[in-house]
Amino acid sequence: MINYRLCLVGFGNVGKAFARLLLKKKAELADKYDLSVSVTGIITGSHGRAINPAGLNLEQALSLVESGGSLDSLSTVEAPAEALAFIKQCPADFMFETTPVNPQTGQPALGHIEKALESGMHAVTANKGPVVHGYHHLTSLAAKMDRRFLFESAVMDGAPIFALFREPLVGANLISFHGILNSCTNLLLEMMEQGKTLEEAVDYGRSIGITETDPSNDIDGWDASIKVAALVTVLMGTPLTPQQVNRTGIRGVTPEMIAEAKADGERWKLVCSAERLDDRIITKVAPQRVGPIRLSSASTAPAPTVNSSWMCSPAWVCSKATPVRKPPLMVCWRTCSIFWR
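Predicted structure:
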């Protein structure tokens, strides 16, 4: 049986959910795939760190963190407090990076991934920052080290949007996409429809773990913008930062605006778009009133929806609608319709 050793950098909502999934899937991984997984290191921002080359007890790690304790007691060796030194010392085959996103620079996550690749690990992240600010560098470094840099859950959670173009649609050129990429604003706007204030909606989103660590990243459109930048950078082949996206958040959406839209059979959504026009790519994130025809009726909170089009040859164009439900499980469901001519 093959054993893969994992180093977890970050142990917040996403990291803990991943640890629970590893525990839940332990028997299935062994029975169906003849492999086992051991977590040899975990480093957090506020709950200490631990390294055990034989594998940490994940149930104990979860219990300690959720009770406000420190992971330090689980370490069998002296674990460095500094993240880059920790990654270098941790004996692992894969590094999973789930620290909070930094839309401005992608750090420190970008440095974590760079160090993991240099140390001979495959690097996997749910963090959009390194994808936007370091995609070409990290991809080249991974190839040089004969390792993989993977980031499928960075945009649209579990929907394999990047893998779709990496494998089934090799040779296709994405020309535009339009839809909802931020599940948190979906939830906030729906709760405001129900009479909650924005602050009350944010508090609820934080309680169920759907808001970003810094809620302003969602409210002010930074999370949506960095997702647009990631899709454009990777799938449209044009480096783009979130600062370059024409961005407007949802702070200006008032209860009166929501009530007026609802009376007309419409809803406010934070809509993302990108379109290639000649040698330019026009990008935008902004609140819009939408009806059930313009976007999928499944686009109620907290399900992001994307309509995209891509050109594979002059003969045909495809469009797709993909709703993804995020909490409480880190799993997605999809409906897909494709049209061509």
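Summary: Residues 294-303, 309-341 have pLDDT under 50 and may be disordered.
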